Amino acid sequence: MRMKGHRNRAPLGALMVAAAVLLTAASASAQTKISATYDTSGAIEVAAGDGPTGVAYDGTNIWVTSQFGNSVVKIAPTGVVLGRYSVGRNPTGIATDGKTVWVANNADDTVTRLSLDGAVIGTYPAGKGPQAILLAGTNVLVANEKGNTVTRLSSSGAVLGAYAVGKRPVALAVEGTNLWVANNKGNSVTKLSATGVVLGTYAVGDGPSGLAFDGTNIWVTNFFSRTVMKLNPASGEVVAKFEVGDGPSGIALNGSDILVVNNGDNSVSVMSSAGAVFTTLKVGISPYNVAVTPSGLWVTNSGSDSVSRR
Fold first, then answer.
1. How many whole angstroms separate alpha carbon 51 and alpha carbon 261?
2. Which residues, including other chains, have CB under 8 Å from residue 221's CB and lie 6 or more apart?
3. Contact 179, 34 (CB under 8 A)
4. Which of 206, 252, 255, 292 is most buried, judged by most C-beta within 10 A?
């Protein structure tokens, strides 16, 4: 599953990733109030296992899922690898509240909870093919790409609910009390209430892969359309559409800037809130997700088995 935007191969999910909402220090770097500069004089590359995909920031260190290494890697802001810890098979999404780390094990249909020193606290069932994971208060939300559902867990790992969404959900974001889900093969996003009621399903571009909420608008990356869309969260209406690079996947906020990871171009587009791309950062091969930290932007490069600090 290492690809550069080919239509016949679906992209890995975009967390944040990874990069979706302000819920914790790093459950989704997209919403953090941390800001990083774009000075590349301190750029580094760090080996991060086999197929690094998800990335999260715990307030001190960076955590990366090694999808094909069945592990997570803990990295200091300087780039020093502090530890490698075994989890389930094919870990993809990752989130942290600054106290523990949660990992979605795609091939095991489970999520693993780790302490910050890498010890496994517990492994809990999720839906079929957990891909993205997000922390919202005391809830753990998991997008299950093979089951077309979102599972809601308690902070102790108990299943509190499972909700049907669109086809191949791969990314999550929270807007107020509502949950937004990117349906990668449904070319849509679904808005759920806090209790899992579907409030709306809205058409977007081809292959939505990443989500972010900037406090006013929902942002969606469309992997096969080479576009980013800005949505009105009240109505789901597309407010604007902007062209970026090839295979936009992960998305995050850096202050008021929008960061878009271009999987096929090996780059990150830096956009203003008005949609103008004013900087492009080159990273490793087949990048997927990005986390914003005081030490810089950290981007996972699945094709070069590394993370880039920019």
1. 16
2. 14, 208, 209, 210, 211, 227, 228, 244, 248, 249, 250, 251, 260, 261
3. no
4. 252
Pairing of strands 198-203, 188-192: antiparallel
Give the pLDDT confidence of 49-85 residue by residue, as tens digits: 999 999 999 999 999 999 999 999 999 999 999 999 9
Domain boundaries, the chain: 29-309
In 11-109, the DSSP E strands lie at 44-47, 52-57, 62-66, 71-75, 81-86, 91-96, 100-105
Cα–Cα distance, 107 to 91 (Å, whole number): 8
- 3-state class of 187 per DSSP? coil
In DSSP terms, which residues pair with 86 in a beta bridge? 71
Tokens 């108990």, located at residue: 158
* Both structure tokens of 137: 């208060």
Q: What is the pLDDT of residues 178-201, one digit of tens each?
A: 999 999 999 999 999 999 999 999
- CATH T-level topology, domain 29-309: Methylamine Dehydrogenase; Chain H (2.130.10)
Query: Residue 219: CB partners within 8 Å, gap ≥ 6?
Result: 210, 211, 212, 213, 228, 229, 230, 231, 251, 258
C-alpha dihedral over 102, 103, 108, 109, to 10 degrees?
60
- The pTM for the full model equals 0.90
d(CA 152, CA 130): 12
DSSP code for 236:
-
